[in-house]
Amino acid sequence: MKKSLLFLLLAIVLIGMFGCSGTASAPKMIVKYDMELSMVRKASDINQRYRAPVADTLDVVRYSYEDDLFRSIWSATEGGWNFTLYNKSEQALMIDWDEAVYMDVDRIGHPILASGTRYSERNNPQTPTVVARRGNVEETLVSKDHIYQSSTGIWAKRPMFPVDFSEAQRYKNKSFSLIIPFTVDGLTSQYEFVFTIADVRQIESTSNPWQLYLLDRTLGVSF
Length: 223
Prior knowledge:
Helix content: 10-25%
Mean pLDDT: 87
Largest sheet: 12 strands, antiparallel
Number of domains: 1
């Protein structure tokens, strides 16, 4: 009975949010974080080689980092990271995602989930990514600790930062990072990709990517 009432309430709320008498949804204000790759640290090399941002065709600002081992292109949002990596070496490069860590703005560590692992299997060991010599790979990364089971029963992702503008503003100029180990020929190098929140804005949008999370928050779902 309790479950039936929960889904009835869910249906009513969704109808209220999306029912619009046959007209298009009016623009609403949502929070937008502008994030930049500000620094790359290597455990074995204090010298950081960093290149200027690269703008792609999808209105997403991306940043590149390159050294003798690989070339990478990054973009970050409040939901996670997207990156492309090109192996410049003559040997296969391996990434063990179970050893990768997201360090939040308070320097609290969170495990990372790569796109090859389902949300529902987030606690299982992950298959490492192997990039062939002179090969490349595209990956989407999220924080394991920000995956949850929603009121609908499906596994979903919640934002890593507040979606309420009054709370979000205090995150401007704060930094967070991804620590990723890269292994070639049995030797592992640990890289820390440091991202800075350059700005926090409100923008108009006809949809909200965090609508399910907001609904679950209203229903009192435990995160």
